[in-house]
Amino acid sequence: MIEFQNVTMKYPNGTKALNDFSLTIEDGEFVFIIGQSGAGKTTLSKLITREEKCSSGVIRVNNFNLSRLRDRDVPRLRRTLGVVFQDFRLIENKTVYENVAFAMKVIGASDRIVRKRVPYILNLVDLADKARRFPRELSGGEQQRAAIARALVNNPRVILADEPTGNVDPKMSLEIMELFRRINEQGTTVIVITHEHALVRYMKKRYVEISHGCVINDRVGG
Question: Whole-model pTM?
Answer without folding.
Answer: 0.93
